[in-house]
Design a protein that fits this description.
- The complex is a heterotrimer of chains A (559), B (280) and C (325).
- With 559 residues, chain A is α/β, with parallel strands linked by helices.
- The longest helix of chain A has 18 residues, at 192-209.
- Chain B has a single domain (81-279), classed as MetI-like fold (Orthogonal Bundle), CATH 1.10.3720.10.
- Chain B is built from twelve helices and no strands.
- In chain C, helix 7 crosses helix 10.
- At the A-C interface, helix 2, helix 4 and helix 7 of A face helix 1, helix 9 and helix 10 of C.
């Protein structure tokens, strides 16, 4: 560790208090760390760990007056930032410290041109004339790798993609060459390929400017990719801090070990799936077009979400559909369930083309194909008790009430919850528990095919593992076929027999998990694989065992 | 649930005051016949009696009718028309909005064009025309107010249905085989009720204002005493007898204010997240 | 720029459709009215004279089939013929055209006043949220929102004209004073004060409440945090980032509300004897002169459409995203 003269930020005993009535008294308690020039410190933790609060506190952006720094200091340029006057803090923000945020889509003012927004930062801190500032804006836009800076300067944010906006954010944060850059989950909302580019950009800018970087993330892959040092936070406390090598390869604290063990990875020992006999589902040349905008008098733009997609799923097979946002993977899933009607092609399920069926004729098939949704907070009707939610399917198909409710209680136990959960409302459960309820609801109709649309991407890693294990366990036990839609190749590799890679509405590659992972054929698959962060890092052997062990033990309802 | 509701509602002091005032107005409307047994149209004392004279509380009008009696009986018309026209507006607005939001596409297009048309028409002008052409009566007044009041409710219901329609729990209801009516009535409607209830409470308030304005122009039901009529009938003698138009106006103000306050309380109680924002 | 033009072009086309629908409603209203349409058209003017009614029947083609009648009516309106007031013995369009400037003056100023004051007060309240000035503004807005506007007018006359004698109570200008130039301007302005306040107060309250809640919402948005993270002065954060975005929903709403404002002018012009279209409507109402009422309905609807298009224009100037939507 280098902590003598080139330390940029020195945080000591930082404690942030929460308003009364919150879940805990302190968002952050007694946190200590330093970041030196040229050093990138990753702060890792799950949601609610206080990692983001720490960053906001240093920046003086805590939501006053309810949340405030109760104790500790953060020394930057030899002086504690918390005791500085409002004007001094303002001079520091954007001047000595730059910050970028998670959501590039909402972080820029929609009504101001990109150039103007960067110019603003310059104007607030530097004594430059308009021409000089304009030159600097162009310089910055070029430096963050944006094409055609001159026309981009005059663009409004809505014309830019998420990755481009994040580059603009970085240009803005770096406008005055700060000594410290705080990046709060800057790549979480981005696709993997874009994430890779942004990570590279941050690393390059750091080298050029010799900055200290405080990088907040929940993803150990990202940590392995970029960190010099790592601090792990849990419920407001820093439980472990050390060099990247120490923390990633020889983690000491049980929580760190648990987190690392939960990192999704390709599991080698899976037996090859035997694709024989009649497929349960045979989708051929499925096409789906959405028309956007438009109205009474004019046609809108057309968006081809699925184009000539063909895919088979055999009984008992899990097919992973992998793709970035906008690849059409969710649309495909929704077409199978009749939530969208495909504009072309056939979706043959057990000998019947579902796409030809009317509402009424489709009804019997609803029992046989079920879905698990992404957002555990939106997928359960908040007005009904869990028992009713799980029993709703059987009830709609004429199962007697008492029988449906009895089955619901059984299923709740099957997914690792207590049968008494049936009497409670969804809001009484955590995200992971809700996802279990959602799975129970899908299973209540004894389906043959389960479509899981990003079922774990809204969950923290440790909970993610539990839900994945549950799905894996259930589909083996019940002999379910599953279509597992995800943006995360690592997750797909972990649960799927077969993987189909989608890009802009087309399937570009299909193969067994092993084939796709170890010998990708299509350039896009290769690009996706290459973009997975932290590839050079192997999860320590002993933690792989920990994972395997957890998968075998009966699961509690702790998620 | 209902306890939490009351707790959140009671935290808004204005809402409690509003509720008390509203209870008073309802009381007045219910017991107007007991408080003032003679018809409010009958002459009971000398004309132009100022307040607290000639046996009156609020004075008498140009024909010697008791203003206080008129206010008590007028409360009926106001509340009756306020509530029934809002109920009718809700029925039209929520039905159209729900259909537009649920089905989307062409249905949505058609319904929203229709709604836009009604929102473009100057609503008071339309109400005046409708009542004038169909001759003033309690039915025509109520119907006219309903006809000009439903568009905002339709837009609101549409927005709610549109966003709930794509929510995952509704999609789950579809995939588990629920029928369309059951999805609309049991999954979406209950979840869209909170903002609609709040908007409806405000619609009652504007309906009362509209009714009073129509009566003021002489378009009220000629058989029913109403606050707006009292103001309209006495405005020419305002210089001599301020009380004749003053007290009915205060009655309208207080009633509408009370309903708005209750509406804000409902908003706090039903949309806790939004309310917290409002309180900063 | 070309996109803005095409956007406005579409709005104009859409407005024409709406106008056509309004004319259809108008037509339906006369036919749906209880009793003989000829009697409805005649109003109370000549209802007793059978020969006169027969004449009307012929003039309005009331014996022809409905589609024919409709066609006649639509083409009449399209050529600016809104019918004839038998009561006043003048074409309806002439009556309305004569009164239109006064109404445009009143509603235009009231619109600008209510929007301007509403934005200002709403902003003040939001910036000082929870302090006494916020409480004061919210309370005033709540009161103004609950008061019948014709009654505010009457009470203002009582206070400012009858009691204090500060402002003229009725009319557009002092009768018979023959004022010219600046004196005339001041005279009209003095007559305008109370009607504008009366009409504007209610909408000011509406816009103030909306502005306040819109600002409180925008205040928590990510891009505002970005602006703070840039170290911008608080004033600039509020003006450039919060306000500009918060104003958008208020403008949208104000556009929708234009019709309500014009409807309100009937009441205000009645109270203040303002010689505008609203007052004409009230007189027509008293005389059951339906031809005039129907004409006013069409003309006020056109006014709303024009207001809406102007609002859209303002919107496109503020929000760059409108080009694509």
């Amino acid at each position: 560790m280098s902590e003598t003269d080139n330390v940029v930020l020195d945080v000591r005993g930082l404690t942030i208090s929460l308003p009364e009535g919150a879940e805990r008294a302190h968002a952050v308690e007694d946190v200590n760390f330093t970041i030196a020039e040229n050093e990138l410190l990753c702060i890792v933790g799950e949601s609610g760990s206080g990692k983001s609060m720490t960053a906001h506190a240093i920046m003086g952006l805590l939501p006053a007056p309810h949340v405030k720094v109760a104790d500790g200091e953060a020394i930057l340029n030899g002086r504690d930032v918390f005791t500085r006057s409002e004007a001094e803090q303002r001079a520091m923000r954007g001047g000595d410290v730059g910050m970028i945020f998670q959501e590039p889509m909402t972080a820029l003012n929609p009504l101001m041109r990109v150039g103007e927004q960067i110019d603003e930062a310059l104007r607030a801190h530097a004594d430059m004339d308009a021409a000089r500032r304009r030159e600097r804006v162009l310089e910055l836009l070029a430096a963050v790798g944006l094409p055609d800076p001159e026309s981009l300067r005059r663009s409004y944010p809505f014309r830019l993609s998420g990755g481009q906006r994040q580059r603009v954010m970085i240009a803005m944060a770096l406008a005055l060459e700060p000594r410290l850059l705080i990046a709060d989950e800057p790549t979480t909302a981005l696709d993997v390929t874009t994430q890779k580019q942004i990570l590279e950009l941050i690393q390059r800018m750091q080298r050029e400017l010799g900055m200290a970087v405080m990088f907040i993330t929940h993803d150990f892959g990202v940590v392995a990719e970029i960190a010099d040092r790592v601090a792990v936070m849990q419920e407001g406390r820093c439980v472990e801090i050390g060099t990247a090598d120490e923390v990633l390869n020889r983690p000491q604290h049980p929580y760190t070990r648990e987190l690392i063990a939960a990192v999704p990875h390709y599991i080698e020992h899976r037996d090859a799936f035997n694709r024989e006999g009649e497929p349960l589902l045979d989708a051929q040349n499925v096409r789906k077009v959405f028309s956007l905008g438009g109205g009474f008098l004019r046609r809108g733009r057309e968006l081809v979400a699925a184009d000539d997609v063909s895919l088979t799923i055999h009984p008992g097979e899990t097919v992973g559909i992998v793709g970035e946002s906008g690849s059409g993977k969710s649309t495909l899933g929704r077409c199978l369930l009749g939530l969208h009607r495909a504009d072309g092609g056939q979706i043959v399920f057990d000998g019947t083309d579902l796409n030809r069926l009317g509402r009424r004729a489709f009804h019997p098939f609803r029992q046989r194909i079920q879905m698990v949704f992404q957002d555990p907070y939106a997928s359960l009707n908040p007005r009904y008790k869990v028992g009713r939610i799980v029993a709703q399917g059987p009830l709609a198909f004429g199962t007697p009430r008492s029988e449906a409710y009895a089955r619901a209680r059984e299923l709740l136990e099957l997914v690792g919850l207590d049968a008494s959960a049936a009497e409670r409302f969804p809001h009484e459960f955590s995200g992971g528990q809700r996802q279990r309820i959602s799975i129970a609801r899908a299973l209540a109709l004894d389906p043959e095919l389960l479509v899981a649309d990003e079922p774990v991407s809204a969950l923290d890693v440790s909970v993610q593992t539990q839900v994945l294990d549950l799905l894996d366990d259930i589909r083996h036990r019940l002999g379910l076929a599953m279509m597992f839609i995800t943006h995360d190749l690592r997750v797909a590799a972990q649960v799927s027999d077969t993987i189909a890679v989608m890009q802009t509405g087309r399937i570009v590659e299909v193969g067994t998990s092993k084939e796709v992972f170890s010998n990708p054929q299509h350039p896009y698959t290769q690009e996706l694989l290459a973009a997975i962060p932290g590839q050079n890092w192997e999860i320590p052997e002993d933690l792989r065992h920990l994972r395997a062990q957890r998968a075998r033990t009966p699961r509690g309802a702790d998620a | 649930m209902s306890r939490e509701f009351w707790k959140a509602f009671a935290r808004n002091r204005g809402a409690i005051i509003g509720l008390i005032i509203l209870a008073g107005v309802v009381f007045l409307a219910l017991f107007a016949d007991l408080l003032y047994p003679t018809s409010p149209w009958d002459m009971v004392t000398r004309p132009f009696a100022p307040p607290l004279s000639a046996g009156t509380l609020m004075g008498s009008d140009t024909l010697g009718r008791d203003i206080a009696s008129g206010i008590a009986h007028g409360a009926r018309v106001s509340l009756l028309i306020g509530l029934t026209s809002t109920a009718a507006a809700l029925l039209i607005g929520v039905t159209l909005g729900a259909l537009a939001g649920f089905y989307g596409g062409r249905v949505d297009d058609a319904i929203m064009r229709f709604t836009e048309l009604f929102q473009t028409i100057p609503n008071f002008v339309l109400a005046v025309m409708l009542v004038a052409i169909f001759t003033p009566s309690i039915t025509s007044v109520t119907a006219s107010i309903a006809i000009v009041s439903w568009p905002p409710l339709a837009r609101l219901a549409r927005g709610e249905f549109l966003s709930l329609r794509s929510r995952e729990f509704v999609q789950a209801a579809i995939t588990t085989g629920q029928s369309t009516p059951s999805i609309i009535l049991r999954e979406i409607l209950p979840n869209s009720m909170s903002p609609i209830i709040v908007a409806a409470s405000l619609t009652v308030a504007t309906a009362i204002l509209l009714e009073s304005a129509l009566s003021f122009l002489g378009l009220g039901d000629p058989n029913m005493m109403s606050w707006g009529y009292m103001i309209g009938a006495s405005r020419t003698v305002m210089r001599q007898a301020w009380w004749m138009s003053f007290f009915p106006g205060v009655a309208i103000l207080i009633t509408v204010l009370a309903i708005n306050l209750v509406g804000e309380g409902l908003n706090d109680a039903l949309n806790p997240k939004l309310a917290r924002k409002g309180k900063g | 720029m070309g996109k803005i033009v095409s956007f406005l072009g579409r709005r104009v086309v859409k407005s024409l459709f709406i106008l056509l629908a309004i004319v259809l409603i108008n037509f339906a209203l006369i036919r749906a009215a209880p009793g003989d349409p000829a009697l409805v058209i005649a109003g109370q003017s000549g209802a007793s004279d059978p020969q006169y009614i027969e004449q009307l029947r012929e003039k309005f083609h009331l014996d022809e089939p409905l589609p024919q009648q409709l066609w006649t009516y639509v083409t009449d309106v399209a050529t600016g013929d809104l019918g004839y007031s038998y009561r006043q013995q003048r074409p309806v369009w002439d009556l309305i055209a004569e009164r239109l400037p006064a109404t445009l003056l009143l509603t235009g100023i009231a619109y600008v006043f209510s929007l301007g004051m509403g934005l200002l007060l709403g902003t003040l309240a939001a910036v000082k949220v929870g302090r006494w000035s916020d409480t004061a503004i919210t309370t005033i807005a709540l009161l103004a929102y609950a008061t019948p506007l014709y009654w505010i007018g009457l009470m203002m006359i009582l206070l400012f004209s009858v009691q204090l004698g500060w402002l003229p109570a009725f009319g557009y200008q002092s009768v018979g004073a023959g004022l010219t130039g600046l004196d005339h301007f001041v005279d009209v302005a003095a007559h305008l004060v109370m009607p504008v306040l009366t009409l504007g107060l209610f909408y000011m309250a509406v816009y103030a409440r909306l502005t306040r809640s819109s600002i409180l919402e925008v205040r928590d948005m990510d891009f505002v945090k970005t602006a703070r993270a840039k170290g911008l002065p608080e004033r600039r954060v509020v003006v450039r980032h919060v306000l500009r975005n918060a104003v958008l929903p208020v403008i949208t709403f104000a556009g929708i509300q234009a019709g309500y404002l014009i409807g309100g002018s009937i009441l205000v012009e009645t109270v203040f004897a303002w010689p505008g279209v609203g007052r004409l409507a009230f007189d027509a109402l008293l005389q059951r002169d339906y031809q005039v009422l129907l004409g006013i309905f069409v003309v006020t609807s056109i006014m709303v459409l024009v207001f809406n298009i102007i609002t859209d224009l303002v919107y496109t100037l503020i929000d760059p995203r409108i080009e694509v939507s």
